[in-house]
Amino acid sequence: MIKLSRYIYSWLFVIAVLLPLQISATPAWNEVNGYDTNGNRCPLPTYYSYPCSVLCVRDISLCPTQVRPSCPAGQTYCVDGSCRDSCPSDIASKCSCPGAPAIQGTLYQCQSGATVDVPYFDASNKTLQTEAACSSYLGISNVAAWQANPDSIMWGTCPTPDYGTLTFTEPVFIAYWVFYGSCFGFLLIWIAYKLVREKAIKAQYNKVAEFKNDAYCDDEKKGSAKSVELKSDTSSTDNMSVDTEEMVIKGYKTDILGLFFHYCYILQTLGMVAYMILIVYDYYQDYYFFRGNAVVQGSTFIGQWYVFFIWFACFTIFQNRIPNFYRIQCAYKEAKYVQVERKEPAIIFLDDVDYIMAFVRYMEKTGKRMFGLDVVVTTAALKKTATGTKYFIYQCTRYVYHPEKQLFNPHHFNLGETNAELAKLTGGLTTAESVEREELIGPNFIEVYVPNIPMALLREFSTFFYIYQFTALWLFYYFAYWQVGIADTSVILISAIVKVVVRLKSEIRIKKMAEFTDKIKIYRDGQWGEYCTSDLVPGDVFEVEEGKVAPCDGVVLTGNIVADESSLTGEPLPIRKFPLRTDDPTIYESMGAGKISTIFSGTTISQSQRTDQNVPVTALVTNTGTATDKGQLVKKILFPTRVSFIFDEQIKIVILILLCCGLICLGLAIWLYTSGTSAWFYAMFAICQLVSPLLPAALVVGQSVASGRLREKNIFCVDLPRILMAGKVQIFCFDKTGTLTKEGLEFFGAKPITDIDNIVNQRLGKSTSEFDDHIENISDIPRLMQIGLATCHAVTTLNGQFIGNPVDIEMFRSSKWTLKDEPDNESYVDTLTPPPEAPGKIGASVHVLKRFEFVHARMSMSVAVLDSHTNKVHIFVKGAYEKIKDLTNPESIPADYDTVTADLARHGCYVLALSHRELDLDQVGGIEGFKNWNRDQMEESIDFAGLIVFKNQLKEDTTENILELKRGATRTVMITGDTALTGVYIGRQCGMVEDGARVLLGDIDTSKNRVIWTDVDEPNVFPDVNVDEALLNQEHTPYELAVTGKAFDWLCENDLIRKYLLDIRVFARMTPNGKVQCIQLHMERGITAMTGDGGNDCGALRAAHVGIAMSDAEASIVSPFSTSVRSVKSCVELIRQGRGALATSITNYKYLVLYGQVMMMLKIFTFYFSVTMSQNVWIAIDVFITVFLTYCVSQSRAATRLEGQRPTARLLGPQTLASSMGLVFINWMFLIGAFVMLFKQPWFRCNEFDSSAVDISKWWLLADNYEAQVLALVCLFQFINNAAVFNFGYKFRQSFWKNYALVFLWLLYLAINSYWMLADPNRFGCIFRFNCGTKSVLEEFGYTPPPIYIEPYNTPLGHNVMPTDFRWKLWGLCVGNIFAGLLYERYVVLGIVHTYLAKRFPLDRLQVKK
Predict the structure, then answer these.
(1) In the chain, how long is the greatest CA-to-CA distance?
(2) pLDDT tens for residues 259-313?
(3) Exposed e or buried b for every residue in 1260-1282, given b needs 16+ CB within 10 A?
(4) Given pLDDT bands bounded at 50, 70 and 90, which one contains residue 236?
């Protein structure tokens, strides 16, 4: 076997080099039926049960008795071969032949079915020899060949049809000349006409260009072209968004001649299909339209097939340009349509830098640029507003023309830069202003187009993938393979319909989410009126009503609002919103400091509370339509950025390689098999089978399955390709509060200064401030501290439920004070009463006069409280203890402040500081005078009052899931707004910080202007550690780093952050923008994931490669993933399913590539032996085996645990190539071994298949032989086993046997194939032409024929039943093939060999601490 394999490989090399050689016989290198196993010359064989041709006679009495027809009594046998009461005179004789002269006189056909054994059969003398044998058997002689007017008897075999000489002027050719001439003639005429018209328009335009405001873009002369650049008015923190998008906008107008040619183009496209149907039909009519000339008809089909493919490929590639191709380009003033061209660069993840990929990408880029395919083209109708302003709708957004700028762009109204400027816009708009603004930005309504089912199907099929499929199917329908064509068409149609239905359901759901209208009260022309929400425009003032959905983005002007934002931003609790202040100079940021005053479109207003009974709760419209955050979500879903994974790029190289294999098959087909049109057809079949139409779908099916499984775990995805990225995540960043720790903090008491109730006298006496004992019981806390706990927050109630910041809610609930539903006086913000057991039994109420809410930029909030008991005003400022220390009078800070706060934080406590100031209302002009104070006035001259302490408890499952991520070689990082010491404590508790590692905390030292690194556990012993030396000494003493927000900023400014980035475990006191920057830095180093509650983590979640928002909504505006399971377990599940999906996609790819490789191997053998498989075997492979196994491979479940390795994403990576090429080699060796074994059998030698007497183009006649049977059975085992080989779970998917569907189907198919191979002739095997034969031959050899129709075999032997002992030997070889493939994959590709090679030759991967 080894010698034969070397022999074959040597000759394959010769084939590749010396293709010009001509082979005149098949097989090329051995003589068919030349010698037996002993070296003796083979005798001529006996042709068993040769079917004799029918006889035609003048009278049925001349028919031999064996084939003489008979009819029931009273009926007559007619010339058409039927029995009738009387024979009509106009019926045609069954002896008539197409393309032959008409029968003269009466001629009857005798019965068929006579068979005869032909001894010493010689294929070169087949006709004379078989006719003589049949004449002898029937007892007749001197039988003439077919003729129109025989004397008495003749053979009924029809001659080759003779429809006359082909002149190429037949009707079919005239139809071809007219149709295809019109296709290309109309195209050339229109191009010439279009060029002339556009040149004239441009010349006219240039004459008056100085008077024009319109721009004109010309394709040919880029020097005069005017590209229109549109700058987006809003920036995004999403690294996958392009802040500035370049767009080219061209104007077009309709033309009567263009409309005519456009309609002709549509008819011609339909005509292409009609002409393909015509020529396929003619194939089955013996080439009637071509006067029986098979070569010309086949050549015509080939040319027509190429034209069909090019026509529809162009239609698919240029479909968005075609409408404007049949229009005239013109200036905007005359235009009725605009063509928008926008570059859409794909985001490529895990990119490889190699010469082959660079070359392919260069060629692709060059080709796209040459044909204008490097831009996304959209056509929109150019409309006019009531005032004549031109606009068009693009991606649900209105683009308005500005003549002075000669630009189309979305209009943006700058209502104001600061909170104060916006707060003053309370007067609303006039009707005229609103109409003008609506013309510029459009109605506040996002219209989502959902096509009907026929249009959706048309769009689905208008892709290159389907064009390739359907073009290939024409080959099947034409070349007598229509059964598989119908089966494949059915599979394609069903999958497309299912895909369309799923997409339509999704689009309908988006449509319902986007298209919202309701009644609303708007302040217009100085009075309130009822309008539709679609009438809202920026600058409008509208009333915010309780229980309704916010129709736009806006800012609160008056009143207090509670909004449920869980559906968009993922905030776990309803959020209280406060009016903007007219004295607040802060720059307005909707997701920053201004978020507490911003209501978002699509959120539900849970509560709307007036602060003045005469003034309704109002808000100012800032954004409408797609400019809102909800609109951006809709656009992100409807028009996602194309994401390209590395295997999307490498698949292009793979397809090129497979096409080269197809060209090799073409060369082999011409050289070894046949020539002319038949060789082309066989080569095209080989290409279609090498590049499986299922291949593109196989690479994404894993994503769909994983998405469904994630949904089962309440993890929702709006961007499927991100699932594969989740499989490659290297760094996972976590927010702390609500993510790693429980949603709420537990109040752990207070630590006030001593004698806090006399704090004012202490400060006047300049006494030293000291901490009192830590007080856990709320009733023991001094009254002044209690007032601070009860009032310094923004908590409100809604239906008996507290609403606000979770920390504030816990603090207020622990104070046991009561918040009244309504304040005692309209001038108060809130009124609160103490509990019955109040300190000192003082039950007097306190009233909140003024409140400034917490903002991240200041890291503090403040309230002014009137104590009705003392009639004093207490100002409390609460916030991060570092910030309060900076704001507070230094002399009021206890000496051990830093030590105490650090110790509390070190023990996992969440620490807030509270400062105080006392005012006399009379000194500030009373309540009215005090209300004019701004925030800075309130928060100055404050004295430290004490610390408020909370316990930060880990969630029960955080530790085990963090350890699971680290087990899976994923670096875990904490990015929190809390203190660094608390973050370090939580990091140690959950296992994020390595056991036994010392932690160095980096903080900025302003006096030294550098970051000081302090040992967290022994800050006094190691106050300033040399961090570089410590990191170099990690093998002896492991170190982890933590930094504060200020230290992070300093390191960024001094370009040092990248040096320490992968050693920093905890990023503390991070602002929302700081979190974004931190994520982007990590993304430079590897695939980065981020999770948080969607509040202040929005930007970071949006920026990360993989963001998962812990939100109750199925779609979040902040990330591609969202989950209602607020646990780190969701992160583990996401990575688990991502790795499984990536491994499954690669597995499906390998399976279908191996399908092509086995098919190529099969083709080479069929070319060499001039054989093929039966039609039913092809159907079984292409429909039942390949389609069902591809589906079952995708059903493998993700592994239950994460392992310390990520699956490869490279189709051309070493592991993928080793797996695929190794199995190809194994399959080749066993197939060669099967034929070596076959050629050693004495019963086979001298019974080899001889194709010399067979028309090779009639491929279905080439399967009834031993060679085809052995080839089919061995390859069937390989087709089936390839799926099982790649089913090993390895580290990313569950065990082999847990893919129950695949294992069941694998065993079922193996059992069926084994039955075909081992069983004697039977009904099931004979359907597929396995171990079967002509019935009479089977009886002659002692077998019982099955009770079904068996088409007579096309070989002299008349059967292909192999001896029982050989069947078992062949079965054993196939079982060996199965085990060899399984063992190779398990122990070489995935097992000990892989482990050894991975250690010996490690890949360059990101090396980080887990």
Answers:
(1) 145
(2) 999 999 999 999 999 999 999 999 888 888 888 888 888 889 999 999 999 999 8
(3) bbbbbbbbbbbbbbbbbbbbbbb
(4) very low
Q: Which residue is listed with tokens 């009466």?
A: 106
Instruction: Pull the structure tokens for residue 597.
Output: 């005053």
- Residue 37, C-beta contacts closer than 8 angstroms, at least 6 positions apart: 1240, 1241, 1242, 1245
**Backbone φ and ψ of 1359, nearest 5°:** -160, 170
Using CA atoms, how far apart are residues 460 and 450, in angstroms rounded to an integer?
13
Residue 885, helix vs strand vs coil: helix
Identify the pLDDT of residue 568.
Answer: 63
Instruction: Judge whether 1175 and 483 are in contact, CB under 8 Å.
Output: yes
Residues 475-534: pLDDT tens digits?
888 877 787 778 778 777 877 777 787 678 777 877 877 788 899 999 999 999 999 999
**E-strand stretches of 886-942:** 909-919
For 1127-1176, the pLDDT digits (tens) are 899 999 999 999 988 888 888 888 888 888 898 888 888 878 888 888 88
Within 8 A by CB and 6+ apart from 1097, the residues are 735, 1072, 1075, 1090, 1091, 1109, 1118
Residues 1378-1395: what's their mean pLDDT? 89
**Secondary structure element (H or E) that encloses residue 488, with its range:** helix 482-514
Range list of H helices, 338-404: 355-370
Torsion angles phi and psi, residue 820, rounded to 5: -70, 150
Question: What single string gives the DSSP state of each residue in 1366-1407?
Answer: HHHHHHHHHHHHHHHHHHIIIIIISSHHHHHHHHHS------
pLDDT at res. 1223: 94
Could you give the CA distance from residue 1089 to residue 1409 in angstroms, rounded to a whole number? 16
- Are 709 and 1133 a contacting pair, CB within 8 Å? no
Name the amino acid, one letter, at 734.
F
Query: pLDDT at position 1115, please?
Result: 47
Sign of the Cα torsion 667, 673, 677, 681 reads negative
Residue 463: how many other CB atoms lie within 10 Å: 14
pLDDT tens by residue, 784-816 = 999 999 999 888 877 677 877 778 888 998 888
- Write the single-letter amino acid at 526: G
pTM of the model: 0.75
3-state secondary structure (DSSP) of residue 454: helix
**Res 1376 pLDDT > 90:** yes
Q: How would DSSP label each residue in 530-588?
A: EEEGGG--TT-EEE--TTSBP-SEEEEEESEEEEE-TTTT--SS-EEE----TT--PBP
CA angle 636, 639, 642 (to 5 degrees): 95
For residue 519, give Cα distances in angstroms to 514, 522, 536, 623, 655: 16, 10, 11, 18, 56
Burial class (CB in 10 A: 0-12, 13-18, 19+), 21: exposed
